[in-house]
């Protein structure tokens, strides 16, 4: 939409028009200003000498310049075409703020000695890490994803089964409930020293710890989900000839699924803490290890780069979980949009 | 929605239900709360019996017992002379709330009974018949949250009828509907009953509803429920609420319920 709202009334004026509407000119101005911010950032990066020795300044400037030019062109293009304009308009405020933030970051680290070095590297130092150390970062991401998935899937699966059993069998509950009450609230990290010598490898120990962390909230919420199933559902199913297995698999579990996903979300969040700790403490791979290693070498740019990648990874996991939830629970309106 | 079909000989597919001296109580905080007091009557094959009584008198408990969801503390309930020990798909309940499974679409909700009994392959065709019967064939893919109260209750009805029950147990199925939908569905249920010929037990506290729908009205006292009167309504369908005979019966029943001064 050409920087003009389709709801702006029955304006029949054919294009091109000489005057812009208030809304159009506001949108254009915003696009121009954010484009200018990025061009300014590019100019600052390239033409103002750094106080330290960092490479990849020209690449960063090229990227920022291209983005700034693209924003300005898109703003002008948006006056004539509806293509993708709504989406761009939604992100221009963010792009403007980011352009200003990068400029400020650049100025306070690389141009003026305001933030202490080497603890606060400039943006192109981080870009340098992605250019020069990408293979090591990629391997770390792969290791972290593998460890997280193994632990989360095992723990989530175990927690789900335990939760269903707790909800359906009082005999199981008699034995499992006290154990769960005792062990569940204990932070899994506390097991770390024992786990590292009790398990054949630090990797399997970490899978166990991540699984343990995940399983507790999943078990509790699955259990409460099964326990809170409307008893009328069981009555209906029983009068229609349902067996016990049918009541569990076709009534209790589907009815409890919204709760299960809350448990999985909580378990996932808690598991990230264990993942990073385990990687810092024992596993010689993964983003946590990379972070630890970078800190040991005082490679602060690498640390920030690893932090950025780590948050993208964790956010990616949460997004994936929410996508699966929305797919499985499509019959209800999603209450939290991620 | 349901066309009034010519009455098939309804003594064919229904079941005879006999309540033999049934008493029941609940224990709440250690105190015994009697709900049914020596209830005894027989609903013949294909009869439409309305159980009428004040709110909370124990009528719904009676239905849970005949459905086999609970066992009576005293006495027994017989279906064709055999005691009812557990739920059976030949005796289906339509509850006050439609209690559709929100994760299943309309068609899958109706399929529930056949699926539970492992009959989906052999009798799956009945699902579409049942949906047509309640006029919801166009909503097969809709989810329960997209339905109005009346539509949801029709789905619940189809979910019951797909099992071809011998006994249809209606626990105030129209209690929560708006009055217009209620009137429509009273006629629909009667038409379905006349077509299929099952025995029907309807719990209601609406005197008019009982008189319009049932062949027999059993009036219960307040809790613990005991039978106060057993009235045969020998009138052809469709019945009209302003029929002077029914109006007279209505006054008589309201009197039994201690509401004769009301209009």
Which helices and strands, and how do they pair?
The complex is a heterodimer of chains A (338) and B (263).
Chain A: H1 22-47, H2 57-77, H3 85-111, H4 123-132, H5 134-168, H6 170-183, H7 192-198, H8 202-227, H9 231-239, H10 244-281, H11 287-296, H12 300-328
Helix pairs in contact in A: 1-2, 1-3, 2-3, 4-12, 5-6, 5-8, 5-10, 5-11, 7-8, 8-10, 9-10, 10-11, 10-12, 11-12
Chain B: E1 17-28, E2 31-43, E3 48-52, H1 59-67, E4 74-79, E5 82-83, E6 91-94, H2 106-110, H3 112-116, H4 120-123, H5 125-133, H6 149-161, E7 167-171, H7 179-196, E8 199-204, H8 207-213, E9 216-220, E10 227-232, H9 244-256
Parallel strand pairs in B: 3-8, 3-9, 6-7, 7-8
Antiparallel strand pairs in B: 1-2, 1-4, 4-5, 9-10
Summarize the structure.
The complex is a heterodimer of chains A (338) and B (263). Chain A has 338 residues and is mostly helical.
Describe this structure in words.
- The complex is a heterodimer of chains A (338) and B (263).
- Chain A has 338 residues and is mostly helical.
- Chain A has two domains: 22-117, no CATH class; 134-328, MetI-like fold (Orthogonal Bundle), CATH 1.10.3720.
- In chain A, 75% of the residues lie in helices and 0% in strands.
- Chain A has helices at 22-47, 57-77, 85-111, 123-132, 134-168, 170-183, 192-198, 202-227, 231-239, 244-281, 287-296, 300-328.
- In chain A, helix 5 packs antiparallel against helix 10 and helix 9 (231-239) packs across helix 10.
- Mean pLDDT of chain A is 87; it is low at 1-9.
- Chain B is α/β, with parallel strands linked by helices.
- Chain B has two domains: 1-90 and 165-263, Rossmann fold (3-Layer(aba) Sandwich); 101-163, no CATH class.
- Chain B has nine helices and ten strands.
- Chain B has helices spanning 59-67, 106-110, 112-116, 120-123, 125-133, 149-161, 179-196, 207-213, 244-256, and strands at residues 17-28, 31-43, 48-52, 74-79, 82-83, 91-94, 167-171, 199-204, 216-220, 227-232.
- In chain B, the strands form two sheets. Chain B has a six-stranded mixed beta sheet with strand order 6-7-8-3-9-10, sandwiched between helices.
- Chain B is globular and about 50 Å long.
- Residues 1-11 of chain B have low confidence and may be disordered.
- Classes of the chains: A mainly alpha (338), B alpha/beta (263).
- At the A-B interface, helix 9 and helix 10 of A face strand 6 and helix 3 of B.
């Amino acid at each position: 939409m050409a920087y003009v709202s389709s709801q702006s009334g029955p304006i029949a004026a054919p294009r091109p028009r000489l005057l812009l509407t208030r809304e159009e000119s506001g949108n254009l101005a915003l696009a121009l200003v954010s484009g200018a911010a990025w061009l300014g950032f590019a100019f600052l990066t390239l033409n103002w000498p750094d106080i330290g020795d960092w490479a990849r300044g020209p690449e960063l400037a090229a990227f920022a310049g291209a983005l700034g030019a693209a924003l300005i062109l898109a703003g002008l293009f948006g006056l004539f075409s509806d293509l993708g304009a709504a989406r761009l308009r939604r992100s221009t405020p963010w792009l403007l703020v980011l352009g200003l933030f990068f400029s400020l970051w650049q100025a306070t680290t690389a141009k003026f000695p305001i933030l202490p070095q080497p603890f606060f590297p400039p943006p192109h130092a981080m870009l340098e890490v992605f250019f020069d150390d990408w293979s090591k970062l990629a391997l770390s991401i792969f290791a972290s994803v593998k460890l997280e998935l193994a632990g989360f899937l095992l723990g989530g699966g175990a927690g789900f089964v335990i939760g269903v059993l707790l909800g359906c069998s009082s005999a199981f509950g008699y034995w499992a409930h006290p154990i769960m009450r005792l062990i569940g609230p204990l932070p899994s990290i506390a097991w770390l020293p024992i786990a590292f010598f009790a398990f054949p490898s630090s990797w399997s120990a970490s899978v166990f710890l991540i699984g343990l962390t995940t399983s507790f909230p999943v078990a509790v919420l699955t259990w409460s989900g099964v326990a809170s199933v409307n008893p009328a559902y069981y009555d209906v199913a029983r009068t229609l000839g349902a067996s016990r297995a049918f009541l569990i698999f076709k009534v209790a579990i589907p009815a409890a699924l919204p709760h299960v996903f809350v448990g999985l979300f909580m378990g996932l969040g808690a598991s990230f803490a264990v993942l990073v700790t385990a990687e810092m403490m024992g596993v010689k791979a993964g983003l946590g290890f990379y972070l630890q290693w970078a800190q040991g070498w005082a490679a602060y740019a690498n640390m920030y780069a690893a932090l950025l990648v780590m948050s993208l990874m964790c956010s990616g996991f949460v997004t994936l979980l929410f996508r699966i939830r929305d797919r499985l629970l499509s019959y209800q309106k999603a209450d939290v949009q991620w | 929605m349901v066309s009034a079909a010519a009455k098939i000989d309804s003594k064919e597919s229904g079941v005879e239900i006999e309540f033999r001296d049934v008493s029941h109580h609940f224990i709440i905080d250690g105190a015994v709360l009697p709900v049914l007091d020596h209830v005894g009557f027989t609903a013949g094959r294909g009869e439409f019996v309305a159980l009428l009584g004040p709110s909370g008198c124990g009528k719904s408990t009676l239905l849970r017992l005949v459905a086999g969801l609970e066992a009576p503390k005293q006495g027994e309930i017989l279906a064709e002379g055999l005691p009812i020990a557990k739920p059976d798909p030949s005796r289906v309940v339509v509850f006050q709330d439609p209690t559709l499974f929100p994760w299943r679409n309309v068609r899958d909700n109706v399929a529930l009974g056949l699926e539970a009994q492992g009959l989906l392959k052999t009798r799956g065709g009945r699902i579409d018949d049942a949906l047509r019967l309640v006029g919801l064939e166009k909503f097969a893919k809709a989810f329960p949250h997209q339905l109005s109260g009346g539509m949801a209750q029709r789905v619940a009805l189809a979910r019951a009828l797909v099992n071809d029950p011998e006994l249809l147990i209606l626990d105030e199925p129209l209690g929560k509907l708006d009055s217009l939908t209620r009137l429509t569905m009273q006629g629909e249920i009667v038409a379905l009953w006349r077509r299929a010929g099952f025995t029907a037990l309807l719990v209601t506290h609406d005197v008019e509803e009982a008189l319009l729908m049932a062949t027999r009205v059993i009036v219960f006292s307040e809790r613990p429920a005991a039978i106060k009167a057993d009235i045969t309504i020998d009138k052809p369908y469709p019945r009209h609420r302003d029929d002077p005979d029914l109006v007279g019966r209505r006054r008589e029943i309201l009197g039994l319920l201690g509401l004769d001064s009301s209009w």
